[in-house]
Design goal:
Number of helices: 14
Radius of gyration: 26 Å
Strand content: 5-15%
Largest sheet: 3 strands, antiparallel
Distance between the termini: 65 Å
């Protein structure tokens, strides 16, 4: 696929590329493409991304040859431009089965199916698009936008599709970033500048982190890209209180009021990293029998702090055994093992396949989740082995 490379050596802070804002596509173009549309308030609920999707659909359905048409035609070429996973071939998409990534894409698909029907019923007739665009067109426009638009930045700027910058490669080891700038008389000439963040040599591939706050599998779901060289983060571990627990209501109070969390809470976990609140939440979930005295109102202000340390041997054993079992069951659901996936990647590399191919990305994404699960098993086995040597609540109170 296409990528951007440095045409010359550059130092940190150097401007590598400058794109006039007038040559980018943002939601402001909606009013130009559909003048006066929704003047009665019927389109007041359209989100910015929806407006951009509708603009792309209008261009795609139109007969006129505007300045955006060459780019839109080029976006149809999956060999040159990345495609959102929702638009992957079925064989590649099925490689993600049993993963959180696959479940998130299913949820995305269901949302888009509903949105597409709503557009067809309420929006297309208002904009003169009724009968001119299909469900496939809507999914194409969504995919083109998500995989080619730059995310909004800390400045109050809009989501926008930026020609040339749309072929930036995603990477966690970044060497460039973007910045809005103003120049000219009265600072009226606005540009989107691509800046080097470290020294570059001629020919270096420009790597841009699409969203530093997100884990790699979420980057894939949201932007259709994945850093196969240095993927960041792991997966979400979702924990929840059991509604059938006789102490359910008291535990809800602890989680929501003392811990500031939800009754069903998701934690970001990765290979070799387990947040402290995960153990505290699990200990609370497994708090029962004699240990449940800690749920008495007198301890309410302190109990979350108590949960951050081992409560009792029985509680700690239940936590470790349940997590080991759950993670091993999740790993067993995959049709392939970690070792088999590593062999698949080796074969793909030996066959000269692109490291950015959908098949390679799918295997890499499920490996991230499998390795995280394996790491959790290892972590809780180590915790279980330390149970005889840990200090528990009653011992700490002496």
């Amino acid at each position: 696929r296409l990528c951007l490379v440095a045409s010359r050596a550059a130092d940190a802070g150097d401007v590598l590329l400058r794109v006039p804002i007038d040559e980018t596509l943002s939601e402001s173009v909606f009013d130009e493409v559909f003048p006066g549309a929704g003047g009665d308030g019927s389109l007041a609920g359209l989100e910015p991304w929806m407006k951009l999707v509708l603009v792309l659909l209008r261009f795609r359905a139109g007969d006129e040859e505007g300045k955006w048409m060459p780019l839109l035609r080029a976006l149809d070429d999956s060999r040159t431009f990345r495609r959102h996973p929702l638009l992957w071939d079925e064989a590649d998409l099925l490689e993600l089965q049993c993963t959180q990534t696959f479940e998130k894409l299913k949820a995305y698909n269901e949302y888009l199916e509903t949105t597409s029907l709503q557009m067809e019923e309420f929006v297309y007739p208002v904009l003169g698009l009724a009968g001119r665009v299909s469900r496939e067109d809507f999914f194409w426009a969504f995919g083109a936008l998500k995989t080619n638009a730059l995310r909004p930045f800390s400045q109050p700027q809009a989501l926008r599709l930026v020609p040339v910058l749309n072929i930036l490669s995603h990477g966690r080891r970044t060497n460039c970033n973007s910045k809005f700038a103003s120049s000219g008389i009265f600072k009226k000439d606005e540009t989107l500048d691509l800046l080097a963040t470290r020294s570059l040599q001629e020919g270096d591939v420009l790597a841009y982190d699409f969203d530093p706050a997100k884990a790699e599998i979420d980057i894939l779901v949201d932007y259709g890209v994945f850093d196969v060289e240095a993927p960041s983060g792991g997966m979400e571990l979702t924990l929840e209180l059991d509604e059938n627990d006789p102490n359910y209501l008291d535990k809800c109070d602890v989680v929501e009021e003392a811990a500031g969390l939800q009754v069903r809470e998701s934690f970001a976990v990765s290979e070799g990293s387990v947040p402290g609140d995960v153990l505290a939440f699990l200990r609370l979930v497994k708090l029962e029998g004699f240990d449940a005295f800690l749920l008495e109102p007198v301890f309410r202000s302190e109990i979350w702090g108590f949960m951050k340390d081992p409560v009792s041997r029985e509680n700690e054993t239940n936590v470790c055994v349940s997590m080991i079992q759950s993670c091993e069951e999740a790993l067993a659901e995959f049709p392939t093992s970690i070792e088999e996936d590593e062999e698949i990647l080796a074969r793909l590399a030996a066959d000269g396949g692109s490291k950015h191919s959908n098949a390679r990305i799918a295997v890499e994404a499920r490996l991230v989740e499998k390795r995280t699960l394996r790491s959790l098993v290892k972590f809780f086995r180590a915790e279980k082995a330390q149970i005889p040597f840990k200090e528990y609540y009653q011992e700490r109170r002496l």
